[in-house]
């Protein structure tokens, strides 16, 4: 497929989601219809009640499961740190430099020369400051007016208060490996490693025995040879402890081989729109995630 066709396809998908968002009412029933139509459009099939990866994510986001107060709590990047501190200890949190709750505080704050700036009520948005370079405050101000729920109807974000969190740059690097553990019933099953996220984003999936798995999600499979972190067993233990109160959750973290920092707990990876590469990879992932206790 040519680049032009790829761009046209992406624009078509974006138009479809925006049209659904505009037409359907913003209530539980409207949300369910939105997710159903999006699931069919994305996966070319109806969701089932079987233990299939995307189908299970669909179940979570269209039932009261997504309204579990703990899921809402850990969706806020500031509040998540309290859960981490209470569950595994504050040493696994990235230190908080500041919480900015409005534009006045944002404009008057003296940002460190090197830091990471994120909205607490959204996912995926981040601004890095390095070497005292100027910050585009207008870009950051826009975050205050965003209700992240309005994008893809993820109800765990609907009632979150808009805030900006300022943190140190983890390990003093912008482009670091991101380890994401897929957990079911309090047990990590496999790990996704995101590589070169801000330059040439690729991914690699591995078993907990650090054996490469033959699929990827959303982004191409990395060709890099990855070395198992020295503290990988500790990362597994952390994932187990943080995920024990959820049916399914993804525990995202960073490691330099010595220190571990928790990034997020992700309720709905890819919002349940995950495209497996190859498509049969969803079967492999589902077997690993759901069927190890059978």
What order do the helices and strands come in, and which of them pair?
Blueprint: H1 3-23, H2 28-43, H3 53-61, H4 69-75, H5 77-87, E1 98-100, H6 103-108, E2 115-119, E3 127-129, H7 137-141, H8 149-152, E4 164-167, E5 178-184, E6 187-195, E7 202-207, E8 216-217, H9 232-243, E9 248-255, E10 260-266, E11 276-277, H10 281-290
Antiparallel strand pairs: 1-4, 2-3, 2-4, 5-6, 5-9, 6-7, 8-11, 9-10
Question: Can you describe this structure?
Answer:
It is a single chain. The protein is an alpha+beta fold. The protein folds into 3 domains: 3-46, no CATH class; 69-73 and 174-290, D-amino Acid Aminotransferase, Chain A, domain 1 (2-Layer Sandwich), CATH 3.30.470; 96-167, no CATH class. The chain is 34% helix and 19% strand. The chain has helices at residues 3-23, 28-43, 53-61, 69-75, 77-87, 103-108, 137-141, 149-152, 232-243, 281-290, and strands spanning 98-100, 115-119, 127-129, 164-167, 178-184, 187-195, 202-207, 216-217, 248-255, 260-266, 276-277. The strands form 3 sheets. A 5-stranded antiparallel sheet has the order 7-6-5-9-10, with helices on both faces. Strands 1-4-2-3 form a 4-stranded antiparallel sheet. A two-stranded antiparallel sheet has the order 8-11. It is globular and about 50 Å long.
Q: Key terms for this structure?
A:
4-stranded antiparallel β-sheet, D-amino Acid Aminotransferase, Chain A, domain 1, single chain, 294 residues, 3 domains, 5-stranded antiparallel β-sheet, 10 helices, alpha+beta, 11 strands
């Amino acid at each position: 497929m040519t680049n032009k066709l790829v761009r046209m396809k992406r624009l078509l998908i974006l138009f479809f989601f925006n049209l659904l968002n505009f037409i359907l009412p913003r209530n539980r029933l409207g949300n369910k219809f939105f997710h159903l139509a999006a699931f069919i459009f994305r996966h070319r099939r109806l969701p089932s009640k079987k233990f299939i990866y995307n189908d299970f994510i669909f179940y979570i986001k269209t039932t009261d499961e997504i309204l579990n107060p703990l899921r809402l709590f850990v969706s806020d990047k500031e509040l998540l740190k309290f859960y981490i501190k209470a569950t595994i200890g504050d040493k696994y949190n990235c230190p908080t430099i500041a919480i900015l709750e409005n534009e006045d505080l944002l404009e008057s704050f003296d940002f460190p020369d090197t830091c990471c700036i994120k909205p607490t009520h959204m996912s995926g948005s981040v601004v890095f400051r390095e070497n005292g370079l100027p910050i585009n405050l207008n870009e950051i101000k826009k975050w205050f007016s965003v209700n992240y729920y309005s994008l893809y109807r993820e109800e765990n974000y609907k009632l979150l208060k808009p805030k900006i969190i300022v943190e140190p740059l983890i390990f003093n690097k912008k482009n670091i490996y991101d380890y994401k553990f897929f957990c079911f019933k309090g047990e990590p099953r496999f790990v996704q490693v995101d590589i070169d996220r801000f330059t040439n984003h690729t991914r690699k999936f591995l078993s907990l025995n650090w054996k490469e798995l033959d699929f990827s999600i959303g982004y191409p499979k990395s060709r890099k040879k990855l070395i198992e972190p020295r503290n990988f067993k500790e990362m597994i233990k952390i994932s187990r402890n943080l995920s024990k109160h959820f049916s399914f959750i993804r525990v995202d973290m960073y490691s330099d081989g010595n220190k571990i920092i928790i990034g997020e707990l992700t309720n709905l990876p890819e919002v349940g729109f995950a495209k497996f590469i190859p498509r049969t990879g969803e079967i492999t992932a589902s077997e690993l995630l759901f069927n190890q206790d059978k």
